């Protein structure tokens, strides 16, 4: 929020609210549902829930694109993140950085790809790296996870 963009967060809350409504329809509660119990679940899914979730999921990618535009096209956001906190690829390796900071510096390494755990071996994805110049700035480090999000949506 300190970088000049409250609206994207609020739009994110709208989408979260839709998910919480699905959760509530299934269990009757919004947070601690006690839905999964020994031997199964407390009740069957409500009629129409899967259709509603599918409808939400099909439009969610568009919603993410709208939120991304709000962020990346915001001049305040750009002024506060471009050319700020530059970490070169060499620095990233020398400092043993990992995750977003490493990929934001342009190094295409993701432990989920090189040593998959959970179901990552079932997901075909390219490692999202920062593609802005200079690589390694704060703006670029934020771009890398946005590329990851596109894979999962």
Largest sheet: 2 strands, antiparallel
User: Proportion of β residues?
Assistant: under 5%
H/E topology pattern: HEEHHHHHH
Rg computed from alpha carbons, rounded to a whole number of angstroms: 19 Å
Shape category = globular
Looking across the biggest beta sheet, what order are the strands in?
1-2
Specify the oligomeric state. single chain
Task: Count helical runs.
Answer: 7
| Overall pLDDT score | 83
Binned, the helix content reads: 40-55%
Query: What are the low-pLDDT stretches, counting only 5+ consecutive residues below 50?
Result: none
Describe the structure.
The chain has 153 residues and is mainly alpha-helical. The chain has two domains: 7-61, no CATH class; 82-152, no CATH class. The chain has seven helices and two strands, in the order αββαααααα. The protein has helices at residues 7-27, 49-72, 75-81, 89-94, 99-104, 111-114, 138-152, and strands at 36-37, 40-41. The chain has a two-stranded antiparallel ribbon with strand order 1-2. A hairpin with a 2-residue loop joins β1 (36-37) and β2 (40-41).
């Amino acid at each position: 929020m300190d970088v000049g963009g409250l609206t994207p967060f609020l739009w994110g809350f709208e989408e979260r609210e839709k998910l919480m409504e699905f959760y509530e329809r299934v269990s009757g509660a919004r947070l601690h549902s006690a839905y999964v119990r020994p031997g199964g679940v407390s009740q069957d899914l409500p009629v129409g829930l899967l259709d509603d979730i599918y409808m939400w999921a099909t439009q969610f990618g568009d919603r993410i694109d709208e939120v991304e535009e709000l962020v990346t096209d915001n001049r305040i956001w750009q002024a506060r993140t471009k050319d700020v906190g530059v970490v070169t690829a060499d620095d990233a390796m020398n400092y043993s950085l990992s995750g977003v900071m490493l990929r934001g510096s342009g190094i295409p390494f993701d432990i989920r790809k090189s040593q998959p755990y959970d179901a990552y071996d079932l997901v075909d994805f390219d490692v999202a790296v920062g593609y802005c110049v200079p690589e390694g700035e704060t703006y670029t480090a934020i771009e890398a996870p946005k590329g990851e999000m596109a894979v999962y949506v």
